[in-house]
Structures are given as structure tokens and as C-alpha cells.
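Researcher: Structure prediction, please.
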Amino acid sequence: MRRKRSILTRAAPALFIAGGLAALELAMRLSLVSPLFVASPSQVAAAVPLLLEENLGARFLQTFGETLAATIVAVAAGGPAGWALARSPSLDRAFKGWIAVIASAPLILLYPLFLVAFGRNMGTVVAIGALSALAPIALKTRDGVVEVRKVLIEVGRGYGLSEGRLFRLIVLPAASPTIVTGLRLAIVFALANVVAVEFIINYGGVGYLVGEMADRYEVPAMYGAIAAIVAASASFYVITERIERWLRPF
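Model: Predicted structure follows.
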């Protein structure tokens, strides 16, 4: 019985999505929804050859790579920043609030400045994605380190662990669930901004393709490109889930 419930629980999201697509297909065939705004799943599937002609695969990989690069930059900068906030109450009081403000700010509006600094190229896309992803990484790293139980640290020090080994063997594993949560948020922020910048400046990956298909009134192809963005998001979710399992194997 438990095994059947487990299978049903795992299959529920797929069944929900399949049901939604079937309902949309039926609504489109009954003309309950205007085809000027929404495309049916069958129309999106029929638009795949057009998307392939527009180099969907290469554009998907470009958006994926830009998001990954932006996230790596954000982790490289936000991780140490969060660690510094956790270790220094003075820095925490001075900068935590400002970082939270940055997390909620529409940083995409800064794209003209990045265009001036980097030009209309991948640098602008990655820079804005990294800036938007930095705050969640810093805040969640700070929260994860602060929430590590003091007794664990004291035990490590009692065994004579150096600060480096203390961080690697105790602090990082204990804080990893919260840090990975920040990583997932950072990826969401980075991907959203990467796609938005591609759309706005007409450069690069799937975001550019969405705008191009919309300008040409290729509604099914536009939704197919959007589906590729969803696929990229799902790919990053799987990657972060694997990272969390690697950090917490037991």
C-alpha cells in the first residue's frame, strides 16, 4: 500500500501536467480560447521544425551556459560575503538589510549601464544574471552558517580541528541544506534575468528566440521557446538536487 502511494505521489505532477495539456488541447479545439493568445500542445509540437531551423538547441545551450556562468559568479562572490556576514556581527548589522533590498530590487532596469560597460554581448547578460543571483546566495549562506549548532563547532574544536577542517567537515555539511536552497533561488533569479536581458537587447539564447517568434506572430513557436526555458529551469533543479545529495549522502 505504501509503495502504491509512493508511486502515485511521484506520478502526480506528471499526471497533473498531462491533464492540463489535455484540457488546453480540448479547449482550443472547441474554440473556447483564442488562438491569437494561446497555442495548443499539438500546435506547439508542430512548430518544433521551425524552432529547429532557428537553432533552438544552440540557443538553449547558450541560455543554459549564461545562467550557469552567472550562478557561478554569484556563488564565488556571494558565498564569501555570506560567510563574512555570519562571522562578523558588525558587518551583518551594516549590510544584511542592504543585501535584502538588492534581492527585491528590479535589477533588470540597470541593463543600459551594463550595455555601456560590456556592450551588446554575453558579458551584459551574465553580469546582470550574476548581480540578481548574488543576494540570495549571500543571505542563505549567512543563514546556513549562523544556524549551525554551536555544540557541533565546540566538539570539532575539542578534537583540535583547524578552522579550515572545521569549515569543511562540520560547518559546510550542516549549512548545506540552507545554502542549496539559496543556490536554487539564485538559479531562478539568474535564469529569469538572463532570459529577460536576451529578450530586451535581442541577443543570444532562448529569450531572443521568444521575442523573435512573438514579433513574427508565430504563437506556437513562441510557446515552444518558452517551454525550452521551462526545460532549462527543470535541468537546473535536477542539478541542484544532485548537489544537495552529494553534500548530504546520508
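Model: The chain has a mean pLDDT of 83.
Researcher: Thanks, that helps.
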